[in-house]
Amino acid sequence: MNKPLLFATAFILSASTVFAADWKFCLLPEPMGKDDSTVVLFDAQSIQTNKGMVKVWTKDILEKDVYKMVDNPGLKQKVDKIVNSGYVPPYAEVYNIPKDQHVGYILYEIAGNDSDIPYLSKILWVFNCIDRQFRYLSVSEYDHNGTLKSTKSTPSEWRDIPPETNAETIMNLACQKVSTK
Question: pTM score > 0.85 for this model?
Answer without folding.
Answer: no
